Amino acid sequence: MKHSLIAAAIAASAATVLGGDVTGTVTFKGTPPPEKPIAPLMADPNCGKLVKGTVTTRHYVVGANNGLGNVFVYVKAGLAEKKYDAPATKPVIDQVGCLYEPYVSGALAGSPIEIRNSDPVLHNVNFMKSEAGNTPFNTAQGPGGKSLDRTFANPEVFVKLQCNVHPWMFGYIGVVNNPFFAVTDKDGKYTVKDLPAGKYTLAFKHLKGGEVTQEIEVKDSGATADATIELK
Question: pTM (2 decimals)?
Answer without folding.
Answer: 0.87
